[in-house]
Amino acid sequence: MEIRLKRVYDEPTPGDGFRVLVDRLWPRGLSKERAALDLWANEVAPSTELRKAFHHDDLSWPDFEAAYRAELAGPTSTALASLREELAAHPVVTLLHAVNDEAHNHALILRDALES
C-alpha cells in the first residue's frame, strides 16, 4: 500500500485512491461533496489538548511529535490498528489534512505509524 499526503483543500484527483481525512475537526469552509472523502478517521487525529498546545501554545515540533506518537501507541492504538486494517485493502491511500505546514503536521507522523 502506498500512503500519500495531501491538503484536504486541494482538488481531488483519481490518483488519490482511497481518501481519508485525518483531522479531528471538520475543515472550515469545505463541503462534504468537495472533500470527496471515503473515510473520516478523526479518532486517530491528535487529541484536542495536544492539537491546541501545538497550534496555540507554541509546543515545539519535537515535543508534539513525541506526544502524538505516545497517543498513537497508547489510547489511540486500537483505532490506529482498525484504520491500518481498513486501509490494507487499498493500493493507494491519501491521508488528508488541513494544516498549512507541509513539513510539520500530524499526517506525517500518522503515515509513519501506519507504515510501521
Automatic annotation (TrEMBL):
InterPro entries according to UniProt: YeaO-like
Domain of life (superkingdom): Bacteria
Protein name (record): DUF488 family protein
